[in-house]
Write a structure and sequence with these properties.
Helices cover about 20% and strands about 20% of the residues. By secondary structure, it is an alpha+beta fold. The protein has a four-stranded antiparallel sheet, with no helix packed on it. Strands 1-2-3 form a three-stranded antiparallel sheet, with no helix packed on it. A hairpin with a 5-residue loop joins strand 11 and strand 12. It is globular. About 40% of the residues are buried.
C-alpha cells in the first residue's frame, strides 16, 4: 500500500509539473507574448486559436491568432460590429461616434487614433473590439475577415465569407500599425479634406477566401451602377463630396462621391443623420 501511495503521489507530482510547464509556454497567461508572430516564430507548429499577449504598457490580454495563413502569426486587434442599424451614432458606434451626429465632435470618438480599448476576443462578432495590439504591435501588413454576427471564436475563420490581406508591407511607411497610420498620417474627421485630393492609400489585396466578383456582388446597386468602387483593394481614410470622413473601405478602393455606401467607421459628423454610424449608409435606401 505504501508503494502504491508513493506511486500515486509521484503521478500527481508529475501531472502538476506538466501542467505548470504548459502554463508557462509562450502565449499562455503566465508567459504572454508580444504578438502572435512572436509565438509562431518561437513555436512553428502553433495552431490557430486563442493566446495571451502583453501590450507595451504591460496589459495582458487574450486574443485570436491565425497561425496558418501566409506563414501565420496574424493577430486579431479589432473588430467593427454593427449592433443596431437603426441607431445612428449611438452607444454601439465606437468606430465613429457614440455621442450622436454632432458637428462639435468632428473626429467622433477618435478610436482609430487613440489608445482606448474595449470589448473582448470572445465577443468580437457581437460587439466592437479593440485590444492593446492595435497600437502596440509593429506590423507590416493587415488582414481583414468578413464574419457573420454571433460566431464564436473557434468559428471565426471557417465562417468568414471573405478573408483577404495586404502583402506589400505598406504599414512600414506609416508607423507599423493602423493607430500610427491614422494618428500621424491620415487623421479622421469631418471636413479635413476632399474626395478628389485627400483620400488615403489604397492597398492591393490577396484573397484567402472570396474574390473580386464576390466583393462586387455585395456592393450597393448605386455604387455598382456608378462605377464608384473598384474591388481588389483596402483603402484608408476617404472623404465624400460633402466632407464626411470614412476610415476604411474593405475590399475596395473608392473613386466616387458616396463612400458612405461602402466604407466603414469614421468621424462624428455626417451631413445626413441617416448616414451616421459605423456602417454609414450601408442600409440606406435613398
Amino acid at each position: 500500500n505504501s508503494v502504491n501511495s508513493l506511486q500515486d503521489r509521484l503521478a500527481q507530482t508529475e501531472a502538476t509539473v506538466m501542467a505548470t510547464t504548459t502554463d508557462h509556454s509562450l502565449g499562455s497567461e503566465l508567459n504572454p507574448a508580444n504578438s502572435c508572430l512572436q509565438i509562431k516564430q518561437t513555436s512553428p507548429s502553433s495552431q490557430d486559436g486563442a493566446y495571451f499577449l502583453i501590450g507595451k504598457d504591460g496589459t495582458i490580454y487574450q486574443t485570436y491568432c491565425d497561425m496558418t495563413t501566409a506563414g501565420g502569426g496574424w493577430t486579431l486587434v479589432s473588430s467593427v460590429h454593427e449592433d443596431d442599424m437603426y441607431g445612428k451614432c449611438t452607444a454601439g458606434d465606437r468606430w465613429s461616434s457614440t455621442r450622436g451626429n454632432n458637428i462639435n465632435y468632428p473626429e467622433g470618438d477618435a478610436n482609430w487614433a487613440n489608445v482606448h480599448t474595449f470589448g473582448s476576443m470572445g465577443s468580437a462578432t457581437t460587439d466592437d473590439y479593440k485590444n492593446p495590439g492595435y497600437f502596440s504591435i509593429d506590423a507590416t501588413n493587415v488582414m481583414l475577415w468578413h464574419v457573420p454576427n454571433n460566431v464564436p471564436p473557434e468559428g471565426y475563420k471557417t465562417a468568414a465569407y471573405l478573408r483577404y490581406r495586404t502583402s506589400n508591407g505598406f504599414l512600414e511607411q506609416y508607423g507599423g500599425n493602423l493607430y500610427s497610420l491614422f494618428k500621424d498620417h491620415f487623421p479622421i474627421g469631418y471636413n479635413l479634406g476632399t474626395y478628389t485630393h485627400d483620400n488615403g492609400p489604397a492597398i492591393p489585396i490577396v484573397y484567402e477566401q472570396g474574390s473580386d466578383h464576390l466583393v462586387q456582388s455585395l456592393l450597393p446597386p448605386n455604387v455598382v451602377s456608378g462605377n464608384e468602387a473598384i474591388p481588389g483593394f483596402v483603402q484608408f481614410r476617404v472623404f465624400t463630396n460633402n466632407g464626411v470622413c470614412l476610415a476604411v473601405c474593405p475590399g475596395v478602393t473608392y473613386v466616387g462621391l458616396n463612400a458612405e455606401h461602402a466604407c466603414i467607421g469614421g468621424g462624428g459628423y455626417y451631413d445626413a443623420l441617416s448616414q451616421c454610424g459605423d456602417y454609414g449608409s450601408n442600409d440606406w435606401d435613398g
